[in-house]
Amino acid sequence: MNAVPLHERIRTDIRERILSGALAPGARLPSEAELMAQYGCARMTVNKALSTLRDGGLLVRRRRAGTFVADRGTESMVMDIPDFAADLALSDRVYGYRLIARKIREGPDGSMLHLEGLHLSDGRPFAHEDRHINVAAVPEAGDVDFTETPPGTWLLRHIPWSEAEHRIGATGAIGDVAAYLGVAEGAACLTLERQTWRGGESITKVRQTFLAGTYELVGRFGADTADRPNA
Amino acid sequence: MNAVPLHERIRTDIRERILSGALAPGARLPSEAELMAQYGCARMTVNKALSTLRDGGLLVRRRRAGTFVADRGTESMVMDIPDFAADLALSDRVYGYRLIARKIREGPDGSMLHLEGLHLSDGRPFAHEDRHINVAAVPEAGDVDFTETPPGTWLLRHIPWSEAEHRIGATGAIGDVAAYLGVAEGAACLTLERQTWRGGESITKVRQTFLAGTYELVGRFGADTADRPNA
DNA sequence: CAGTGGTCTAGACCACGAA
DNA sequence: TCGTGGTCTAGACCACTGG
Question: Integer distance in angstroms from CA A165 to C1' D14?
Answer without folding.
Answer: 38
